[in-house]
Design a protein that fits this description.
The radius of gyration is 31 Å and the shape is elongated. With 262 residues, it is of the alpha+beta class. Strands 1, 2, 3, 4, 9, 10, 11 and 12 form an eight-stranded antiparallel beta sheet that branches. The protein folds into two domains: 23-51; 62-110 and 138-255, Umud Fragment, subunit A (Ribbon), CATH 2.10.109.10. The protein has helices at 4-10, 21-54, 86-89, 119-129, and strands spanning 55-59, 79-83, 97-101, 140-148, 152-155, 163-165, 168-169, 199-203, 208-212, 234-235, 239-248, 254-255. The longest helix is centred in the N-terminal third of the chain and has 34 residues, at 21-54. The chain has four helices and twelve strands. 21% of the residues lie in helices and 22% in strands.
Length: 262
């Protein structure tokens, strides 16, 4: 007769072949989080490289470059893309529209840092600026290159020549005469005017450029900083890049032309 107790003792319970569902769920969530972290890391790395070496977005701060670039208090200012590669291999040329850091205290008058007074938030904003998620902590301006090193620029309303470089009058189709103040025109229509006070002659030092706004009568450009150490000129090393595109608002999307006025 079979020994039921012995058979029962020799019976080994079957192992549970199904993994714990809770552990599986934790594993899936952990894998997803790792994937998200990797994707975010790759995106931030690409943003850092592009922002540092290739392109950066800026906001036009004022109306000084109208009608080429639009900007004013309380309006939708143009968002522009600056090419940071070009001037690594060549120098700025007359007609280039450039973004540059204020080269002296004279240019910084009226500028306020975009950084918070809270040191912790300030540091966070510094880090975000590496990825173009916060503006840089410097006074960036946008103007057009008018003259380069070794050239002499000046303007005297009495001679009727307008702005001249090496004695030759400039051809400046980017200036909208309707935007210029009549007080600065010799005939009320903008013909032959300096669109501002007389200036010069100024010979541009080596490694520098002379810049002016397209909205000539409403631009605090090189003309208004001739008492600084650079005589109003901007060192090429302070130029952040060449303006290539307007990307916003979408109604103004398009390229920004470099028109050589000489």
């Amino acid at each position: 007769m079979p020994d039921d107790d012995a058979d029962a003792a020799n019976t080994v319970p079957a192992k549970d072949e199904t993994p714990d569902e809770e552990e599986k769920e934790k594993g899936r969530k952990g894998g997803l989080l790792r994937e998200i972290a990797i994707v975010i890391g790759i995106v931030l790395a690409l943003m850092f490289v592009v922002n540092t070496f290739f392109f950066r977005q800026y906001v036009v701060p004022s109306e000084s470059m109208e009608p080429t670039l639009h900007g004013c208090t309380g309006c939708t200012n143009d968002r522009i893309v600056v090419d940071k590669i070009s001037y690594r291999f060549s120098d700025p040329k007359p007609g280039d529209v450039v973004v540059f850091k204020a080269p002296s205290d004279s240019w910084d008058r009226g500028w306020n840092s975009p950084r918070s007074g809270n040191p912790v938030i300030h540091k966070i904003q510094d880090v975000l600026s590496w990825f173009a998620l916060s503006p840089p902590n410097e006074n960036n301006l946008v103007k057009r290159v008018i003259a380069t090193e070794g050239q002499t620029v000046e303007c005297h309303a009495a001679d009727g020549k307008g702005v001249t470089v090496n004695g030759k009058s400039l051809r400046e189709p980017y200036i909208d005469k309707n935007l210029q103040n009549a007080q600065y025109t010799d005939d009320g229509t903008g013909g032959g005017s300096c669109y501002g006070d007389d200036f010069g002659p100024v010979t541009v030092p080596k490694g520098n450029v002379w810049v002016m706004g397209d909205n000539r009568s409403d631009s605090a450009d090189s003309r208004y900083h001739m008492d600084d150490e650079f005589h109003g000129t901007v060192p090429v090393k302070d130029i952040r890049g060449k303006v290539r595109f307007i990307i916003y608002p979408f109604s103004r999307f398009g390229g920004v032309d470099a028109v050589d006025p000489q």
